Amino acid sequence: MFKFTLVLAVSLALPGFSFADDELKIVGMPSIAFNSGNAFVNFGGPSVKLESGSYFGGLSFFPSLRHNSSANEWSPILGAGIFIGRKNVFIIVPSYYYTSTWYTAVGLGYKF
Fold first, then answer.
1. First and final CA of the chain: distance in angstroms?
2. 8 to each of 3, 12, 14, 82, 89, how far by Cα in Å?
3. pLDDT-based confidence at 99, cuts 50/70/90?
């Protein structure tokens, strides 16, 4: 069963690969945001993005890992907010809902 699944996955993935004049590159918008006592490592998610020249911005979801410094623990969390940037660097302002309250953070990110 495992061999069948592996062969099926490879055969479905092969038509998506093209080697003529293509570059292997990482696409994404990781970032780090902070608020009082918490750090959020964001991985970028679905977004609505507007671009004009080298400037860009939009609304996005931010799947994140939250580090609570007082409890020294990591937990997954989903945020939503805005981002604005120029070339490859951007500022994010996500909001997160936890412990029955909305919290807003501010951070920096890099667009690959």
1. 37
2. 8, 6, 10, 39, 39
3. confident
